[in-house]
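Morning F.,

Quick status update on the modeling queue. The single chain you submitted on Monday has been processed. Sequence for confirmation:
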Amino acid sequence: MRQAVQTGMPPAQVADAVFKALREDKFYILTHPDWKERVRIRMEDILQERNPIESASGTVWWPRLQQVFQLRSSALTRAIRSKMSQIAKWCKKVVRR
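Structure tokens below.
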């Protein structure tokens, strides 16, 4: 798990993707292309009322995603706060004009 977090996308890059999606009025933000297939499978499971499938490693991927999020959330929060600070400064400049 820690290896997945360490080799994943840096928090600042995730923050950039989040703010880009917000600017483009996107609701869903998938930072990794391979997640689209996983989401499609999960939605099909839900619609068919099936239990979540297991990954090749034998673990259900949703709890694994939650673990990754918990490990990355503090770094991501710092990156998002930094971006928000930058946006706030930019907004103040625009208002002053």
